[in-house]
Design goal:
Layout (H helix, E strand, L loop, with lengths): L6 E4 L2 E3 L2 E3 L4 E2 L3 E2 L4 E3 L2 E4 L3 E4 L7 H12 L6 E3 L5 H4 L2 H7 L4 E4 L1 H9 L9 E3 L5 E3 L4 E6 L6 E5 L4 E5 L19 H17 L3 H12 L5 E4 L9 H13 L4 E9 L4 H15 L5 E5 L5 H10 E11 L2 E2 L1 H12 L6 E7 L6 H10 L5 E2 L4 E3 L5 H18 L3
Parallel strand pairs: 8-9, 9-10, 10-11, 15-16, 17-18, 17-19, 19-21, 21-22, 21-23
Antiparallel strand pairs: 1-2, 2-7, 3-6, 4-5, 7-8, 12-13, 13-14, 14-15, 19-20
Amino acid sequence: DSMHNVRKITEDLYWVGGDEHRLHLFENVHPIARGVSYNSYLLLDKKTVLFDTVDWAIGRQFIENIKHVLKDRKLDYMVINHMEPDHAAMIQEVVMHYPEVRIISSEKAFYFMNQFGFHIDPEKCETVVEGDTKSFGKHKILFVAAPMVHWPEAIDLTNGVLFSADAFGSFGALDGKLFNDEVNFDRDWINDARRYYTNIVGKYGPHVQALLKKAGGIDIKMICPLHGPVWRNDFEYLLDKYNRWSKYIPEEKGVMIVYASMYGNTENAASVLARKLVEKGMTNVHMYDVSKVHVSELIAETFRYSHIVFASVTYNLGIYPPMHNYLMDMKALNVQKRTVAVVENGSWACKVGSLMVQALEEMKDMNILNEKVTLTSSMTEDNHIEMDSLVDAILDSMKDK
């Protein structure tokens, strides 16, 4: 049992999760160069309560951790907030080791449990709904429904711990650190937290707003998510980010130029545009090659900046495929409230600009600038004039009106 690796969170609450460094893609789609953590929490009260499990990949570590914390006590309850397999994979395994455990979850989650092939004796299941509370001794837990931000959440009213499931989570392995004040979050973690939120939860802004309002009525002293650091202070920082992301309000005034270039001509146009913006004093300008930068990063930056310029070649009379994919992702994740512009390039029929505008018109509250730049293969003197108008339009739209 000496493989255990646990952290004490409060007097009677322990982190019994673990890190995953071998996984290349989260949900088999988002790159995670820094790995990811799977967090699970164990409460020792008159009754013992496990909050969620972990991914199969770290199952052995997880069971060692539970056994170490419980010593010779039995596990009385397992609260399942979240039924996705990266957290629920070990449900049956826990039941094998602790056959007397009772499982607390929502009706929907029990339904999913069955769908995923976890067959639990109905006698051992307790269904909770929004507003239910349960006492495990001195700790009283309130259950809150947070649909799409991932099923029921649990709040320990006794010491103000919010078990927030996928809300407030982040990519990145913990590597021995657990609390937000043990890391430099704004330097080392915010990009992963933003990329996690925007790609995993980004579509469900209104649901996150509802959760923030519910949590707002409770004196929260700690936030325990299922991935990434546990928060025990500086909540304003985190809540401000979540408030902006979930209302689709940019964090920064700045311009992201996403370009699709086959031979470098569209890239040259993007560089010229960036230079012209900088010369006029807008230095918060960032260029991204849509063929090289993973779409999950593009989405994160889209939530971050106020202005986006899409510069693309025409390809098979359509939008260059990686650019098209990015636009479809923006739409799927409900991106809105941005000022956008297009730069189009075509050697034969230049169709891409109108197609990109059409895609952007299908999104909510997008301010599409009329100043379009049209290249026929490469930059001309006329393009410089068009581009100067575009720069002026971008700068004008940034003024506080």
